Amino acid sequence: MKICPSCQTEFDLPAWACPTCKFKPGVVDGTVVLSNAMTPTDSYDAKFYKVLAELEAGNFWFRGRNSLILWALHRYFPDFAYFAELGCGTGYVLQAIAERFPNARLLASEIFPEALTYAKARVPRATYVVM
User: Fold this and answer.
1) What residues have CB less than 8 Å from 15, skipping those under 6 apart?
2) E strand or H helix at 37, and its extent?
3) Tell me: the pLDDT tens digits for 38-71?
4) Which of 56, 51, 35, 24 is nearest to 112 (CA)?
5) Which residue, 27, 52, 37, is CA-closest to 118?
6) pLDDT value of position 26
7) How far out from the chain centre does Cα 92 lie?
8) Under a CB-based contact definition with an 8 Å cutoff, are residues 48 and 62 in contact?
9) Distance CA 125, CA 105 (A)
10) Which long-range contacts (CB under 8 A, 24 or more apart) does 65-73 make?
């Protein structure tokens, strides 16, 4: 389901165009942009996403966090059909979820479009939005 950011209409259509007010979000590099602000805060330098993407798989903290997330999903939601990750970064968690739950429909969002470059490479089947 989608909710139009302009008029709040709920709709479940493949396209992102609102059937009520006809609002159609922008697209950057093939990714729907649902955020009005295209410039994120100075809280993170986007150039570090490349380094992060290279280090995650070898880092105990990221591996441990993924193990815990996968355990919890398998234990409490083993048959979930949809999963949304808000703030997916480079897609490291999303990749693990996609591999463990191959039938789940995946949605991922991130405020930094640069991070989505790495996430899309890791999990091409997911739907991505900038927000």
Assistant:
1) none
2) none
3) 555 566 787 899 999 999 999 999 999 999 999 9
4) 35
5) 52
6) 87
7) 11
8) no
9) 8
10) 65/93, 66/92, 66/93, 66/96, 69/93, 69/96, 69/97, 70/96, 70/97, 70/100, 73/97, 73/100, 73/101
For residues 1 and 10, what is the distance between their CA atoms, to the nearest angstrom? 7
Alpha helices in the chain (DSSP H): 49-55, 60-76, 92-100, 113-122
Q: If 0-12 CB within 10 Å is exposed, 13-18 middle and 19+ buried, where does residue 81 land? A: exposed
Residue 16 host element (H or E): none
Identify the segments of the chain with pLDDT beneath 50.
none
From 109, 92, 94, select the one nearest 40 (Cα to Cα).
Answer: 109
pTM comes to 0.82
8 Å CB contact between 110 and 89: yes
